[in-house]
């Protein structure tokens, strides 16, 4: 039995043993639309301004009024990024970029294309230069940029303060020269991982570039002493310099660097050869706050002592993989009262835990990274948790000597109200996270424990434990003689057997045709 119930705004049809079904009349949609249309323009503009750029483009298609109101909200967009916007194999294209910058390009301060660079062509630089004449920060990481497109961009975006060209593989010194020629206000220039850069572009840098404070040259494998020397001669006011993994830099240019850059605050030179007399010059940089000398065999105890005596404001220090260090140099780091982040991964066995414990006793550490090293023990981590109330990050991946004892120190800290969690990286240690003995640790809300092993076994100082030494008795005997392979003519007639003692010795009687068809084919074609 079915009986309709009629109302002003909707009709309800009730059927036996069924849920009621509602049928809305067409005037309801118009009523709802009228409810939105009666809102003032200022209210709609405020609502539209909270939408993303992708949603605003869709709103423009609703009606003429909404289109004009949305256009008034583009003025509020100062920073544009495409992170987590495109799905699957889709990406930013020149047409999409032109459509967006046509609306908000004139108001942008920051534009980031690093999240979706693969479908953007060199024509995108003309689009950016056309619509974003007042742009200050631009990230072109891995974008297909050439020297010509950089010239077109720099000639129109002359107000750039920060430019990132990381992994722009087609850029050369000529393209960077165009940037330095037009962008006089540039303060941060990132040229990391550009394989064709030699540094000749810095020769044309004028004295007007007094704003350039930071430059990144990491993994520029063709950067040489001449190119870096031009930079050091023109940019004596640099505050940040990144030259890690530049193999063609000699100790002579390092000495010039230490003498000229007295205002340097950040110096990242991982894997750089400082030379035998580097300790005599590194003490000249008294303003250093961030130092990375990791994986350098020429970093000696005297280098660290000279650095500590002159640069007392160091907050971040990385000496990972410095195989020449001993306790004499590491223990001197205890005099750095402002040290907050320390990395001592892959240090040799000549550095003991007492040296690291002396550093921890200052109570200022925020982060400690000690991967695959014996100089960090349970006692050091317990002291870190007890004496350093601001600690936020601890990475002891690959340290076999670390056990579950360290959790006791963090248990005592559980009653303290912490604003930030403590992130622990414990992969490759003696801790068994699935054991019942550490079940109670999961109840600590202030601990974020990860069992991923971030250590690289190839860099371990105790590699013999991981990979035993080679035993000559089990391998190839050097004195063992084999019959030389006889010369074979390039053309061999079919169905002709060639006597070859070497092949008989190699295969022997144990060769079976059915074991591997590929072996049989190679035999027949030989």
TrEMBL record:
Highest taxon of source: Eukaryota
SMART domains (UniProt xref): LRR_CC
InterPro entries: F-box-like_dom_sf, Leu-rich_rpt_Cys-con_subtyp, LRR_dom_sf
SUPFAM superfamilies, per database record: F-box domain (SSF81383), RNI-like (SSF52047)
UniProt keyword ATP-binding present: no
GO cellular component: SCF ubiquitin ligase complex
GO biological process terms held by the UniProt record: SCF-dependent proteasomal ubiquitin-dependent protein catabolic process
Keywords (A to Z) from UniProt: Ubl conjugation pathway
Keyword ATP-binding: no
UniProt protein name: F-box domain-containing protein
